[in-house]
Design brief:
Belongs to the galactose-1-phosphate uridylyltransferase type 1 family. Keywords: Carbohydrate metabolism, Galactose metabolism, Metal-binding, Nucleotidyltransferase, Transferase, Zinc. Its cofactor is Zn(2+). Its EC number is 2.7.7.12. There is one protein chain. By secondary structure, the chain is of the alpha+beta class. The protein folds into two domains: 216 residues, HIT-like (HIT family, subunit A), CATH 3.30.428.10; 166 residues, 2-Layer Sandwich (HIT family, subunit A). The protein contains seven helices and 19 strands. The strands form four sheets. It has an eleven-stranded antiparallel beta sheet, with helices on both faces. It is globular and about 65 Å long.
Length: 398
């Protein structure tokens, strides 16, 4: 049974090298089936799993990214050397996330159609990729028992929020935002069902300061074959809390923030936005559903509709957080928007869906650098207080 709204139609295509692509349409002509998207990809790309030739012309099986275990922290570290050659800040006429140009000859864009509403496709330069025929097993490295390696057998997808490369996500309509939410939920459900996947992460990097290499409005969806360190750490804390109280930690956090009220920056029928009591970033907001749900898939129709307007409101406040430029234009706030979802398997009942949106920018032109204490020791030092962040977010509400 599909979890998609009746107002959204999903159409699958296959790119020239075998990767999946999905159109998510809210345009009535496409939802009704009156029109359909272009499904063929004319590019002369070789199959991504085809054998490769070395410098001597000898054929070898294709290899995917691998992971090595950091025995000092217990964390898996993926190594994807092929990403060194990925697209970096291309000119406007070579944007691989833009729709195909009407009547143009072959161009190396990822979307075959000349327009789209929302589109999702497998990343051409993935950090995580399952290669057919390669078993996802741990092995030793250099004959050292405690050095462990395994394939990075996950999946990376790109989601394009708009065909307009001049737009940011905050500028899309509530209807289009709803379609994006539908796409996030659909991909979370399908990726969670893949063999070996332990966690699905939907996120957006916005701004060159964050590390964005393509300015087209887009996000990413990672399906990890392991629990990420952040989720594993939250799971430890949540289990300790449940053992001590019998309650869900994230539920109690939301209730405590609502009782305090001091850091609440947004409330609607189904969602609450707040600056967390121990916020670490110069700008940070958590957005959580009032109802206990593990992931985006579990949101009902009303919660998704409410989220569409709530999300845009939060993004607009973040954009107004800093004073405007001298010419009156808004100061573009770089940010990371990260959807924390419960794990696919064990620990699902202990965690709870919430968005963490944060920015490195501490004032216009000045970034919060992760220097010695943060990077070397993981010991965070904040340059402001959560209450000041909340006051400013409430001040710029319109």
């Amino acid at each position: 049974m599909s979890i998609l709204s009746d107002a959204v139609r999903k159409t699958r295509a296959t790119l020239a090298d075998g990767r999946d692509l999905f159109y998510f349409d809210d345009n009535a002509q496409y939802v009704s089936g009156e029109r359909t998207r272009r499904l063929d990809d004319p590019r002369p790309l070789s199959d991504r799993y085809a054998p490769v030739l070395d410098e001597n012309g000898v054929e070898h099986p294709v290899t995917g990214p691998t992971m090595r275990l950091d025995v000092l922290t217990g964390e898996w570290i993926p190594h994807a050397a092929h990403r060194m050659n990925r697209t970096f800040l291309p000119p406007a006429d070579a944007n691989p996330l833009a729709p195909a140009k009407p009547g143009a000859a072959y161009s190396d864009g990822e979307i075959p159609d000349e327009d789209y509403d929302v589109v999702v496709f497998e990343n051409r330069f993935p950090s995580l990729m399952r290669v057919p025929g390669v078993d996802d097993i741990e092995t030793t490295f250099e004959d050292v028992d405690f050095w462990r390696v395994r394939p990075a057998a996950g999946r990376c997808e790109v989601i394009c929020f708009s065909p307009d490369d001049q737009k940011s996500l905050r500028e899309v309509s509530p209807q289009r935002m709803r379609t994006i939410i539908e796409a996030w939920a659909d991909r979370t459900e399908e990726l969670s069902a893949l063999d070996g996947i332990e966690q699905v992460f939907c996120f957006e990097n916005r701004g060159q300061e964050i590390g964005v290499t393509l300015h087209h409005p887009h996000g990413q969806i990672y399906a990890y074959p392991y629990l990420t360190p952040r989720t594993a750490q939250m799971l430890v804390q949540a289990r300790k809390h449940r053992e001590a109280t019998g309650r869900n930690l994230l539920r109690d956090v939301l209730d405590a923030e609502l009782r305090s009220g001091r850091r609440i920056v947004f409330e609607s029928e189904h969602w609450v936005g707040y600056v967390p009591m121990a916020a670490r970033w110069p700008v940070e907001i958590h957005l959580a559903p009032r109802r206990d749900v593990p992931d985006l898939v579990a949101l009902n129709e009303d919660e998704r509709a409410d989220l569409a307007t709530a999300y845009l409101e939060i993004l607009n406040r973040v954009e107004r957080f800093f004073p405007p430029q001298e010419n009156g234009e808004l100061t573009k706030t770089p940010y990371i928007a990260a959807w924390h979802q419960a794990p696919v398997g064990e620990g699902r009942e202990d965690l709870r869906l919430h968005l963490q949106l944060f920015s490195f920018l501490r004032s216009p032109g000045k970034l919060k650098y992760l220097a010695g204490s943060e990077s070397g020791m993981g010991a965070w030092i904040s340059d402001t207080t959560p209450e000041k962040i909340a006051d400013r977010l409430n001040e710029v509400a319109q």
